[in-house]
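Quick start: read one record
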Amino acid sequence: MRLINIVASILISFAVISCGGSSKKTESQTDTVATPTIDVDEMLNGGANKMTESLDNRALFADDLEPQEAVAVLVGYLEIEKDAKTARRTRKELETMRKFVDVYDIAISNHGDKMRSAISQYASAKGVDLSVVAGEFRDRLRGVDEGSGIEATQVSKPDSASTDSAITQTEAVQANPDMFN
């Protein structure tokens, strides 16, 4: 219940900050995709599973999240990861870390300096640097991938010479079908 209250208060504070920050009038764009909103009352009544579902729905539209919204999603995932770690639910913990890193990477890629600014604002307000957390999660995930035998690097492509020789052999068989009779 504590987790839900923390995330709900963070989401509400980011909504207030993002809505009340500017006095300029902006024109709405008709070609933008609307992201689903998080119903805080529903999350509070639904429990941790409902909160995870709401965060996952937001993460599906990570490309469309504003920096403050992305920070709120990251904070939610961080709280879920902490609870999973406390409960020794390793699979849930690893899954949440991967989601965190994915949303972080997408938000940084799309918003760059604005996202870094939102992260530093959160760090100065709450004392948690989400960039550092993302790095720690990457390191932990890399260690898990290496320990499980999953190759973390890309496999190199075969030589073009070996591919060319295979094509040549195939062409030779097609040109002389009596070769193997």
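The chain has one domain: 2-17+35-171.
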